[in-house]
Design a protein that fits this description.
The protein has about 350 residues and is an alpha+beta fold. It has two domains: about 1-90; about 110-340, 2-Layer Sandwich (BirA Bifunctional Protein, domain 2). It has helices spanning about 1-20, 20-35, 40-45, 55-90, 110-125, 135-140, 175-180, 220-235, 290-295, 310-320, 335; strands at about 125-130, 135, 165, 185-195, 205-215, 245-250, 255-260, 280-290, 305-310. The strands form two sheets. Strands 1-4-5-9-8-7-6 form a seven-stranded mixed β-sheet, with helices on both faces. Strands 2-3 form a two-stranded antiparallel ribbon. Strand 6 and strand 7 form a beta hairpin. The longest helix has about 40 residues, at about 55-90. Bound molecules: phenylalanine.
C-alpha cells in the first residue's frame, strides 16, 4: 500500500507537469482527490490493514494528500499568474501616444469682445469690477437719480422679485456700489448681464450685456470723457475711428450724450452695416450728476466724474456682421464654431 501511495504521487506529479490548461489540472484534481478519486479509493481500503500498519499508512496517506493538493494548487496558481501577465501585457498603456481627439470648444463672441474691451481699459489703468444681477430698486434707480415715478423708469421695465428687488436693467448700479466702498480716484469698468422685459426679436432680448465705466477724481472734465472714449474707439475699431457725441438725457449724468463711432467698414461713407449713416451708435455717457455723487458721500464741489455704458451685443454684431441677435443665445454650434 505504501508503494501504491508513492506511485500515485509520482504519477500525479508527472501528469501535472504535462497539464497544459487549467481545465486539465481540474480534471486531475477530481481524478486524484475527488470523492471517487484514486486517493479516496486507497484510503477506503485501509480497513484491511493490520492495527500496526494502519497509523503508519494513514500518516503517509495524509502526507501524500497534502503534497498532491499543494502541487495542484501551485499549478493552478501558475496558470493564473500567466493569465494575469498576459492581460497586463495586452493592456499596457503607452502614455506617450497621442490622445484621442477631444473636440475643443471656443470662446463665445460676447466673451471675446468683452475681454478685448477689458484689456483696452486695463491698459488705461482701469480696474474691472463686478456687481449683483439681482439688485434693489435703490441701487438700480433711486441712487441713480431716478426716483419712483421718474419717467425714465418707463423705458427700463424689468423683472421684479419683490416690489423692492429686481433684475438690474443696467450695469450703472455698480457705479454706486463702487463709489460707496472706494474713495477717489476711481477708474473702473464693470461688465455684466442686464435685464429688461423686452420681447425677443432680431435686435432685442430680455437679457443682454453692458459694460459700465466710471471715473471720479478731482478735476475730471468732459474733455477726459472724450479723450478716453476716443482712445478706446481707436484701439477697438482702428486708428482712423472718430467719435461723435449727440446730446441725450440720462437721469444720472449731466450733461449726457449718446456716442457713435465712425463706421469701421465704410469709414463714414455709408454702407449696409451703418445703414448708410456712416456712424454706429455704441454707448451712452455723461458727467456724473451731482446728486449721484452727493448720495455716495462725495462733495460735487470737490469731485467730478464721467460715466459711460456700452452695449456689448451691438458691438459684437457690428464687429462680426451678425444680423440677428438671437444667434448669440441659441448655442447653435454652426454659428459658434466660426469664432473658435
Ligand atoms: N445705463 C445707461 C443705459 O443703460 C447707459 C449709461 C451709463 C449712460 C452710464 C450714461 C452713463 O441706457
Amino acid at each position: 500500500m505504501k508503494e501504491k501511495l508513492m506511485r500515485l504521487q509520482a504519477e500525479l506529479e508527472e501528469k501535472l507537469s504535462r497539464a497544459a490548461t487549467p481545465d486539465a489540472v481540474e480534471e486531475l484534481r477530481v481524478r486524484y482527490l475527488g470523492k471517487k478519486g484514486q486517493l479516496t479509493d486507497i484510503l477506503h481500503s485501509m480497513g484491511s490493514l493490520s492495527p500496526e500498519e494502519r497509523p503508519v499508512i494513514g500518516e503517509l496517506a495524509n502526507r501524500v494528500r497534502g503534497a498532491i493538493t499543494e502541487a495542484i494548487n501551485q499549478k493552478k496558481a501558475s496558470f493564473e499568474r500567466a493569465l494575469r501577465q498576459k492581460k497586463l501585457e495586452a493592456e499596457t498603456l503607452d502614455i506617450t501616444a497621442p490622445s484621442e481627439q477631444i473636440p475643443e470648444g471656443g470662446r463665445h463672441p460676447i466673451a471675446l469682445v468683452q475681454e478685448e474691451i477689458e484689456r483696452i481699459f486695463i491698459s488705461m489703468g482701469f480696474t474691472v469690477e463686478d456687481g449683483p444681477e439681482i439688485e434693489t430698486d435703490h441701487y438700480n434707480f433711486t441712487a441713480l437719480n431716478t426716483p419712483a415715478d421718474h419717467p425714465a423708469r418707463d423705458t427700463q421695465d424689468t423683472f421684479y422679485i419683490t416690489d423692492d428687488v429686481l433684475l438690474r436693467t443696467q450695469t450703472s448700479p455698480v457705479q454706486i456700489r463702487v463709489m460707496e466702498k472706494t474713495r477717489p480716484p476711481i477708474r473702473m469698468i464693470c461688465p455684466g448681464r442686464v435685464y429688461r422685459s423686452d420681447a425677443v426679436d432680431a435686435t432685442h432680448s430680455p437679457m443682454f450685456h453692458q459694460i459700465e465705466g466710471l471715473v471720479v477724481d478731482r478735476g475730471i472734465t468732459m474733455g477726459d470723457l472724450k479723450g478716453t472714449l476716443d482712445l478706446f474707439a481707436q484701439k477697438m475699431f482702428g486708428a482712423q475711428t472718430k467719435t461723435r457725441f449727440r446730446p441725450h438725457h440720462f437721469p444720472f449724468t449731466e450733461p449726457s450724450a449718446e456716442v457713435d463711432v465712425s463706421c469701421f467698414v465704410c469709414g463714414g461713407d455709408g454702407c449696409s452695416l451703418c445703414k448708410k449713416e456712416g456712424w454706429i451708435e455704441i454707448l451712452g455717457a455723461g458727467m456724473v450728476h451731482p446728486n449721484v455723487l452727493r448720495g455716495c458721500g462725495l462733495d460735487p464741489e470737490v469731485y467730478t466724474g464721467f460715466a459711460f455704458g456700452l452695449g456689448l451685443e451691438r458691438i459684437v454684431m457690428a464687429r462680426y456682421g451678425v444680423n440677428d441677435m438671437r444667434y448669440l443665445y441659441e448655442n447653435d454650434v454652426r454659428f459658434l464654431r466660426q469664432f473658435a
